[in-house]
Specification:
single chain; 50% helix; disordered N terminus
Length: 424
């Protein structure tokens, strides 16, 4: 029998004898697959995709102190903050009594890069080994990792996941540009929810989800039709490590806080990070003179995804109401002014590029989210902030540290101090 379809526990290699439970795909309908709260808009679309393939997924939205405490109990306290939170959120859920642990699985994404994010899965299995050894962990990745424990990602599913990133980015952009100005409270949230459900239904069709031009036009029209106030609010960009940048749990609901402070959040899309990963593989082949089939695949993938981004930008510009995302090739040119594209650990040169592009296009107020334990992020982000401020004197950049010992009050006070000098 193939071990992908057998539910069992076997000792993992290593002296600590961590057990690794395999997920029984033939019984996937009996399991609840828990998903960490990283990208609420995007992940709900991804969950809708997997639902049609028989997976019952649930997005964890717990954000209590107990999540941090569980993380501290189960991983070393010098482990990076995102790992601590993801593992803490999973352990908190399993201990809540809400789930049948014999029919619960955990889903975690992996980039395959040099960041410790690729090793979360081993830390998670170690945390589970004593208390919940029967709980399998599934990996969602495109790097060939965890071949015997990865969730299904065939060509059709992979294509749908790409579209989920595109539509998730568009909805996040439109939401952030409408929510601060809505006349009727909650109208933007209801429209977002409506579109998430609509996209979930379209992903069950054969090709309905692929009509990007039609769907972008409908999204733009629907959000533009929302009654909005004419006032102008300070626009605040959010950059940094990918998990802390997007996750409400990790950044203490930063998006909501900025809205409550009368600001318009400006969060770069997930597609930028995907293109960043692809471009890094291409850069490596040039830097080390090592071209292979993998390089060719990444090159084709980059060209296709960049074409998708250009289409999205063009449609937003032609519609004329909303500000489009940054062109990724423009981001690369922005990075080249300050840093080499060979700097790719963590979010590497992408953080510098996003800060420079935001400052250049009118978003002068920038929050750089800094997770504890992410050394590349701290070096690149804090190191680049000074030269970007020199190039754009009006840039108002603040680095906010997120770690187990940092209080929400302290973080919000630092942001309020930055907003006191906000540039509109």
């Amino acid at each position: 029998m193939n071990k992908e379809t057998v539910s069992c526990s076997v000792p993992h290699s290593g002296s600590d004898r961590v057990h690794k439970s395999y997920f029984d795909r033939s019984r996937k309908g009996e399991y609840t697959v828990l998903v960490p709260d990283m990208l609420p808009i995007h992940f709900k679309l991804i969950m809708a995709i997997y639902k049609q393939y028989g997976y019952n997924m649930e997005l964890l939205e717990t954000s209590t102190r107990n999540v941090i405490d569980e993380g501290l109990k189960n991983v070393h306290n010098d482990t990076c903050y995102p790992a601590l939170l993801v593992i803490g959120q999973f352990m908190d859920a399993l201990k809540s009594g809400k789930y049948d642990v014999d029919h619960t699985a955990l889903l975690i994404s992996q980039t395959g890069g040099g960041c410790r994010a690729s090793n979360y899965i081993h830390l998670l299995r170690k945390a589970l080994s004593e208390t919940y050894p029967q709980v399998p962990v599934l990996s969602l990745n495109f790097s060939g990792l965890e071949k015997d424990a990865s969730i299904e990602v065939g060509p059709v599913i992979a294509l749908k996941l790409i579209y989920a990133v595109l539509y998730g980015d568009m909805l996040m952009l439109l939401y952030n540009q409408c929510k601060p100005y809505e006349v009727e409270e909650g109208a933007t949230d209801r429209l977002l929810d409506s579109w998430q459900k609509k996209m979930g239904r379209l992903f069950t069709t054969k090709r309905g989800y692929m009509t990007t031009a039609k769907l972008y036009k409908e999204m733009l029209s629907d959000f533009a039709a929302l009654p909005r106030k004419k006032e102008k609010k300070p626009r605040v960009g959010i950059v940094g490590e990918i998990y802390v940048k997007y996750s409400p749990l990790a950044n203490n609901h930063l998006n909501e806080f900025l809205l409550s402070e009368g600001c318009e959040p400006n969060v770069p899309g997930l597609l930028d990070f995907v293109l960043y990963c692809a471009s890094d593989a291409i850069n490596d082949s040039k830097l080390y003179d090592n071209k292979d089939k993998r390089t060719l695949v990444y090159g084709i993938g980059y060209d296709v995804l960049y074409k998708f981004q250009k289409q999205q930008i063009k449609m937003i510009e032609e519609h004329g109401v909303f500000q489009p995302p940054h062109d990724f090739e423009h981001l690369r040119r922005c990075a080249d002014k300050y840093i080499h594209q060979g700097v790719k650990m963590g979010e590497g040169w992408l953080i510098t590029a996003e800060m420079a592009a935001l400052a250049e296009t009118g978003t002068k107020n920038i929050i750089c989210t800094q997770p504890f334990g992410c050394l590349p992020n701290h070096i690149v982000a804090k190191g680049s902030a000074r030269v970007i401020k020199q190039a754009y004197p009006e840039a108002n950049i603040v680095a906010i540290d997120y770690d187990p010992g940092a209080t929400k009050v302290n973080q919000e006070n630092r942001i309020k101090l930055m907003l006191a000098n906000a540039v509109i």
